[in-house]
Amino acid sequence: MKPISSLAQQLALWADQLRDISALGLRFSQTIYDREHYQAIQDMALDMFALTTDTPAAELEPLRSTVLSRPTPFAVGDAAVINEAGEILLIRRADNGRWAMPGGALEVGETPAQGVVREALEETGVRAEAVQLVGVYDSRLCGSVTAHHLYQLVFLCKPLSGGSSEPASHAQEVLDTGWFAEEALPDDLDPGHRGRIPDAFRAWRGKALAYFDR
């Protein structure tokens, strides 16, 4: 990650992280109390944006319905961790019981490659290094079952030797993990991953350019 060059840039980054937290919270919160808390976080983000840009907060109020509400597609990433034996690391998701690549929502302040490596470590305990972009996928076109429009980035990753630890995710997220050869993938793959895993193996064999939807 590049170093922060000034205090103003660091404050702007924190403000954007608070914006991200509040937007997600306001979208998914179920109670009025949660909404009040996330609204307070959004207020703080707005005040910090005003401070770092030397702009009156009142002039930034229109951003609540655009930038602060995060109307763009969600950015998520998956780690296609393939070892030297040609086996891919998969998790059994707790929400639908199906097998998938480790991954999740990317966070403000990290690169997409850093995000997928973090997700792989959190969900499996396997430390890995992103080595190649497999592709950028539109959730509407690749079989993903989601109520929200996602941009899904898949990175080919290699596991690091001696780099395993206890996963940080709880059982509510991951039921099991395993390594699978391409010809022995589980039958119950998550539909959003079924078409992307072959792309990852093609990238691993050096036979594919990065995919993108046209």
Short description:
Helix content is 35%, strand content 27%. It has helices at residues 7-28, 32-53, 57-60, 112-124, 191-194, 196-204, and strands at 74-81, 87-93, 99-100, 103-105, 126-138, 150-164, 174-181, 211-212.
Explained architecture:
The mean pLDDT is 89. This protein has two domains: 7-65; 74-212, Nucleoside Triphosphate Pyrophosphohydrolase (Alpha-Beta Complex), CATH 3.90.79.10. Helix 1 runs antiparallel to helix 2. It is built from six helices and eight strands. Strands 4-1-6-5-8 form a five-stranded mixed beta sheet, with helices on both faces. Strand 2 and strand 3 (99-100) form a beta hairpin. 29% of the residues are buried. It has helices at 7-28, 32-53, 57-60, 112-124, 191-194, 196-204, and strands at 74-81, 87-93, 99-100, 103-105, 126-138, 150-164, 174-181, 211-212. The chain has 214 residues and is of the alpha/beta class. The longest helix has 22 residues, at 7-28.
Helix content: 25-40%
Strand percentage, roughly? 25-35%
> How is the biggest beta sheet arranged?
5 strands, mixed
Shape: elongated
CATH superfamily of the largest domain: Nucleoside Triphosphate Pyrophosphohydrolase
Radius of gyration: 19 Å
Look at the structure and give the mean pLDDT.
89
Proper CATH architecture of the largest domain: Alpha-Beta Complex
Order of helices and strands: HHHEEEEHEEEHHE
Structure summary, number of beta strands: 8
Number of domains: 2
Note the total helix count: 6
Structural class: alpha/beta
Task: Report how far the terminal alpha carbons are from each other.
Answer: 30 Å
Q: What's the CATH topology name of the largest domain?
A: Nucleoside Triphosphate Pyrophosphohydrolase
Residue stretches low in confidence (pLDDT < 50, at least 5 long) are: none
